[in-house]
């Protein structure tokens, strides 16, 4: 008994302080079991995997700087006369929200820097999420088992948009107030409930005296609270599913090849946080964003030209600008289609990309887990669909800045608007066709490289005078990588009659699925991979040609 | 851990279902020319074999961390020494706040150098040997699933939820109803719409007051080709509800040649060629502020709805759905422009009850 106590106490004395702290924590939190699974967790390396990190880090930067800003910002619409240090606006009537934003910008040392870091980080956050989402989309990383994480990410993107919107509306400046007015006008267009929602949201008629305080609690508490939960869930799932990887030698669907969290990814990812933060801080040092002192306080009867929302709302702005002003009056009511349709399209356009993984998995009927990423060319229909979606998005983004486009390129605003109207329908179709052809072309090239080798650039003169280019056979690694992708066969409905000669009933959805499957994986939608037989025939036959 | 030591890791996933997966074996041969050759052998970096190169990397990382420390000291020094209102000229940025520039650059540098140091450290001095980890199926094995289902059935049975229907139904009822309290509580967020959107401050006899000079307007103040903004008499900027009232009552006034007015009602509601229209766009409520003198078109700068003021403010381009409401005006005994009533239709964006 006594010996065990002494040896116990002796070993405790010997253990270094760090280990003793860890022991203490393990006894209460079980950290050793957690660390066993995660400390040397493997992360594959690819440049595109850092896009999600940019989002995470800019989100953290937004929270850090946002907390600082709340210390000085007054979310109040009480009208006061300004007597701060920004001379041009002295004596002017403005809301306390606007005045306190001026104070942050001119009287609090470093306040302007933190404000600009906050705003730039928000722009980077949304842009990062958009690009990250595209990475996940085009490489098929959304497939089973990651569909739920795709939805979490999508929700973060949408909530990020609205957090951004409620955030830049807080200073109550002329530009953001115009954006709030636009939102109120869009709310009014909703049938039956529009006027009620508007009255309830603004505490009466627009602008009233409430919306800054209400947006404030939405912006700093409600939405970021939900987002923080989603970010944590998103990361837990990334850890749980383990990271995807591109096909390559030694990389299979059943393993994950890369470098361990401790130390390499700890250093790389941790270091990357500082790189992102440092970069955004320097952006805030040299590039002004949202100079509310130039815009002035909000007045519902005043506006400046070239009014633009932040970029991520530009696509909604484009929808509303391009839509013709349809209004239907009937039985004493008005259906404001000119505003309502853009509002609905805004939701539908986003929902399409959110639901895409479920549509694709229904078409393929594939219930297996996928951890190997697709090269975009090897999923031509998906890639074409994604590019078509982006094309629609970008055209609307251009539409959202139609006045800027018109003044910068000396074009008629009317023709720019008409271009956007037509482009919204034609652009995605053209993009779809072109992208699919490019993908198929790239697939052919891959096949060619596998079968005939790579062009070496060496010209050889044959004895009879003919010049030929020497093709070098690919390495085993390259051969494997270029042929590692799977190719689905189009689903078939099956015979029209069953084995007894009785007509089978084929349901509508099944027919649709067969059609879609054919569109995805039919003859025109993929180039068959080179087979071993083809390869043998060519390599054993007439040499490299 | 290289592929040779652990060949199982390099076996591709068994994907027999589609019959198209290549490389069912780890070694390429006649039948499987595209087989997975396994992880390529590790290539040593110069730092792995040359200690002097590793030392150089170490010094680079240390230098970056040192620069970061200096930058933080610079940040504090800038904060203390540079006045908040100092404007400096920095090429090519122009005249900017010196404090903001100094704080941002020092903070940015301090952070960036930490990051650059850490990444350089990871890339040159930490092991870059690739390791393979196994994946495990997310789905639970059948026996786990069976256990969970059995547990659930047991729990459900013990709760008697399925058997005692009354209990179940009343519980669902209670759980469905209680959120209603939360919804009811939201009622006082704002008043009901009623006819609030139909009325503005304008009424018969109210003078048109110039927004800029705060003086009542006479017909002679409104010249051809100018665009004048007006508010109703009695509404002052300091008023508690100024913003909300001006959001509906804002008015724009132009003078046209009476013979140029194409719309009959517009002519009737004008005074000597002077017409008054709501300044609030009927699209989503931006204030209209661009006036083209020659064509008498006004353009909303937000979404480019264009209205023809000589033709009843008809929409001639853009997303607005109906003309701008016109205010009927006249001149009172003292020669000032006055309203002859409120707008006869709601101003601003259309809504369901507008009709």
Automatic annotation (TrEMBL), chain A:
Q: Which residues form the Cytochrome b/b6 N-terminal region profile domain?
A: 21-247
The reaction(s) catalysed by this protein are: a quinol + 2 Fe(III)-[cytochrome c](out) = a quinone + 2 Fe(II)-[cytochrome c](out) + 2 H(+)(out)
Instruction: Name the coenzymes or cofactors required.
Output: heme
GO MF entries = metal ion binding; oxidoreductase activity; quinol-cytochrome-c reductase activity
User: According to its UniProt record, where is this protein located?
Assistant: Cell membrane
Q: Which UniProt keywords apply?
A: Cell membrane, Electron transport, Heme, Iron, Membrane, Metal-binding, Respiratory chain, Translocase, Transmembrane, Transmembrane helix, Transport
Q: What class of enzyme is it?
A: translocase
Q: How does it sit in the membrane?
A: Multi-pass membrane protein
A Pfam family in this protein? Cytochrom_B_N_2
Q: Where is this region: Disordered?
A: 523-545
Which top-rank group of organisms is this from?
Bacteria
Q: In which broad location class does this protein mainly occur, judging by the first location in its UniProt entry?
A: membrane
Can you name a GO cellular component term? plasma membrane
GO annotation (BP), single: respiratory electron transport chain
| EC assignment | 7.1.1.8
- List membrane-spanning regions: 49-73, 119-138, 150-170, 182-203, 215-240, 261-289, 335-359, 379-398, 418-435
Task: Extract the PANTHER family matched here.
Answer: CYTOCHROME B
| Protein name as catalogued | Cytochrome bc1 complex cytochrome b subunit
Q: Which organism is it from?
A: Streptomyces apricus
Automatic annotation (TrEMBL), chain B:
- What is the topology of this protein in the membrane according to its UniProt annotation? Multi-pass membrane protein
* CDD domains listed in its UniProt record: Rieske
Citing just one GO molecular function, the answer is: 2 iron, 2 sulfur cluster binding
Cited Pfam families:
QcrA_N, Rieske
Keyword entries, A-Z? 2Fe-2S, Cell membrane, Disulfide bond, Electron transport, Iron, Iron-sulfur, Membrane, Metal-binding, Oxidoreductase, Respiratory chain, Transmembrane, Transmembrane helix, Transport
Q: Which Gene3D superfamilies match?
A: Rieske [2Fe-2S] iron-sulphur domain (2.102.10.10)
Q: What is its main location?
A: membrane
- Please provide one cellular component term from the Gene Ontology annotations of this protein: plasma membrane
InterPro entries recorded for this chain? QcrA_N, Rieske_2Fe-2S, Rieske_2Fe-2S_sf, Rieske_Fe-S_prot, Rieske_Fe-S_prot_C
The residue ranges of the Rieske domain are 243-338
Show the ranges annotated as biased composition (Basic and acidic residues): 17-34
Q: Which residues cross the membrane?
A: 61-82, 102-122, 166-186
Enumerate the PROSITE patterns for this protein: RIESKE
Where is it located? Cell membrane
Name any cofactors this protein relies on. [2Fe-2S] cluster
Residue span of region Disordered = 1-43
Question: What function does the entry list?
Answer: Iron-sulfur subunit of the cytochrome bc1 complex, an essential component of the respiratory electron transport chain required for ATP synthesis. The bc1 complex catalyzes the oxidation of menaquinol and the reduction of cytochrome c in the respiratory chain. The bc1 complex operates through a Q-cycle mechanism that couples electron transfer to generation of the proton gradient that drives ATP synthesis.
The annotated subunit structure for this chain is:
The cytochrome bc1 complex is composed of a cytochrome b (QcrB), the Rieske iron-sulfur protein (QcrA) and a diheme cytochrome c (QcrC) subunit.
What family classification does the UniProt entry report for this protein? Belongs to the Rieske iron-sulfur protein family.
Name of this chain's protein? Cytochrome bc1 complex Rieske iron-sulfur subunit
Organism name: Streptomyces apricus
